[in-house]
Every structure is written in C-alpha cells, then in structure tokens.
Write a structure and sequence with these properties.
The chain is mainly α. The longest helix is centred in the last third of the chain and has 31 residues, at about 320-350. α1 (about 5-25) runs parallel beside α16. It has one domain. The protein has helices at about 5-25, 30-35, 45-60, 70-100, 100-105, 115, 120-130, 140-160, 160-180, 185-190, 195-210, 215-220, 220-240, 250-270, 280-290, 290-310, 320-350.
C-alpha cells in the first residue's frame, strides 16, 4: 500500500502513548493530575492493533489473487519484523546467562527461549499469569500480530469478501465475550482471539475503504464520524476516570472503536488521505517510522541504562533527569536501528513483488 502520512502520524501517537505509560515517573515526581490523565495510555498497543488490522488487511485484500500471495507476504513481513527482533532476542539470551547478577536473579523463571523464536510467548505468559521477562515482555503483542498475520492471510485467500465480512464481524463480537469469561485478566489481554476486536475492526475498515463506493460513502458521512469521535472520546475520558484496566470485556472494544474512528478521521481529513496535522507532521512521522525500534528497545533501555549509570555515578539520578537520559539513548538507538537495520532490510524485502 502507498505510504500514508496519516497512518505514520497515528503510529507515532501510539508509540508516544506507550512511552509515556512506561517512562512516566510514578514515585511522587510527577504531578497527580498528569498521572490521572494518563491512566489509559497503556492502550497505545490497542491503537497499534487497529492500525495493523487496517494496514495488513488492506495489503492482503489488494493482493488476494496474486500467484505468490503467501511467499511475497511472509518474506516482506519477515524482512520487517525479524532482523531487529532476533537481535534483541540474542542479546536477551546472552544477558540472562552471562549478564550481571541482578539479571540472573530476576530471570530465573524466564520463559523457554523457544517460545520467543516461535512467537508463542503470549500463551506462556498467560499460562504463568505474569509478564516475567521485563527486557522482552512487550513482545507478547508481536506474538499476537504474527499469529494474526497467519490467520488473516488464510482467511482472505480462502473467503470471498462477503464471507470475510461476516467472519470479521463475528470475531469482533466474539472477543469481548471471550474476555468476559476469561479466568483472569491476563488471559483476556494476551490471547489472540480475546484481542480480535481491535485487529478485526482494522480489517473491517480496510474492507470498507477498498470496497467499491466505500471511500465515497465515508467521505460523504465524514460529519457523522466527527460526532461519533467526540462521543467515543467522552467514553475514553470516562474509562480514564474509572481507571479502566487491561483485559476488561468492554474496555478494549470501546477503545477499538475509538481508535478505529480516529484512524478513519486521519484518512479523511481535508479529503486527502496523506494529511494529518494534530501535531507537526515531521514529528509524528519520525516517531511513526521508528515506532518498531522504539517499541522493542524501550524496555531494555529502561532497565539497563540505570544499571550502567550506577557504575559511573556515586549518587543515583533523580527521576526526571534519568527519564531525559533514557529518552536520548532510546531515540539514538531507534534512529540507528531504523537506518542501519530496519530500512535496508525492508528495502530488500520489497524486491519480492506480488505477481
């Protein structure tokens, strides 16, 4: 699909939400009103899921009849996901066996390494009822996305669009029901069909966006979507006030509709899908294009940099100076990752064209 500034901007907002949630000091250094207003920022991952559903669903729908449909899709996805992922995995494997004492103690119950290589760590985290590998625990969401890629690529290849629409709506309805009956909140949060509403709402948007007359319908009713966004924003504000937490049956569904509406308005803004100006485009685009590296690296930076600083400083840094250092290190690492690892290998992957 043609790269869209709107979607890069939305991706940038998603990673900023994740960063604020994980990096905001919670030991009294942050004013209470800021903490209370950011209670829902853990949902940046929900925005990523809706974006993935829209983007991956759109790519697969466009190329559903290609002769090399599966091989081209998987090679291109592997070129995007695996290089940095495997680098982080190898560093994790080395650190837990040869690293400093505090890591060795913290990771005595780490998941078997094969679970990370097979993208099944989300099932094991759910079974153990804990995210007990802090350096790489964020990879549970990548596992869900990889499982989603396989499932959706099969659905789109096998089903016609009418049947696909029915299955998509059924999975959106099924997800909150599965969460409601889940034995604990982590199962509701970490398993793929329990999170299908976010992913499949993105697919539903892709189906309408590529349907004959779909764009015209959406542009024609843009005022309706603006008002629905206001309503859904009030829902999000209420969930923030209520301190809604992960795994809730209705919370993720409400967030999925909110973020789906947000993405739709980003695409429709000014009748031009390449424009989106909540913040300066260049800022959000930078974050969006480097969001994968920031996402994979932000927890290792958060854990390892304070340990390294302790070697050089007699006194520990206060919360906000430490956050500034973490962000500088993270952004430099993400920029290097994007330019040296991700972009060159993505470019190679794009040599595999759909035929």
């Amino acid at each position: 699909m043609k790269r869209s500034q709107a979607l890069d901007a939305a991706r940038g907002i998603a990673i900023i939400l994740v960063l604020i949630w994980h990096y905001l000091p919670r030991d009294g250094a942050t004013p209470g009103f800021i903490l209370s207003s950011t209670r829902l920022f853990w949902s940046g991952v929900d925005l990523f899921f809706v974006l993935s559903g829209f983007l991956i669903g759109g790519i697969l729908l466009q190329n559903a009849r290609s002769r090399n449909y599966f091989s081209a899709f998987y090679v291109r996805r592997a070129a995007r996901i695996l290089p940095l992922y495997l680098l982080v995995f190898c560093a994790f494997a080395v650190l837990i066996h040869l690293g400093p004492e505090f890591l060795a103690k913290s990771y005595k119950r780490h998941l078997p390494l094969w679970s990370y290589l097979t993208f099944t760590q989300n099932f094991l985290y759910a079974a153990r009822q804990g995210l007990n590998d802090p350096l790489v625990d964020v990879t549970w969401s990548l596992a869900i996305e990889e499982q989603f890629y396989i499932f959706l690529s099969l659905l789109i290849r096998i089903l016609n669009r009418k049947k696909l629409l029915i299955v998509t709506i059924a999975l959106i309805i099924l997800a909150p029901i599965l969460r409601f009956y889940a034995p604990n909140f982590l199962i509701g949060y970490l398993l793929p069909f329990h999170r299908a509403d976010s992913l499949m709402l993105g697919v539903l948007l892709a189906l309408v966006w590529q349907w004959d007359g779909g764009k015209e319908f959406l542009y024609k009713h843009v005022r309706l979507f603006r008002w629905s966004f206001v309503l859904l924003f009030l829902v999000a504000a209420y969930l923030t006030y209520r301190e809604a937490w992960i795994g809730d049956a209705g919370v993720h569904l409400g967030l999925a509709f909110f973020y789906c509406n947000f993405i739709l308005l980003a695409l429709l803004r000014n009748g031009n899908e390449s424009r989106f100006s909540v913040l300066p485009n260049k800022v959000l685009e930078w974050f969006g294009l480097r969001s994968y590296g920031i996402y994979l690296l932000h927890k290792p930076v958060q854990i390892l940099i304070p340990f390294l600083l302790a070697w050089f400083l007699e006194d520990s840094l206060s919360a906000w100076p430490l956050v500034v250092i973490l962000l500088i290190v993270l952004f430099v690492a993400a920029e290097l990752s994007y330019r040296v690892i991700e972009k060159p290998i993505m470019t190679l992957g794009h040599h595999f064209k759909y035929e």
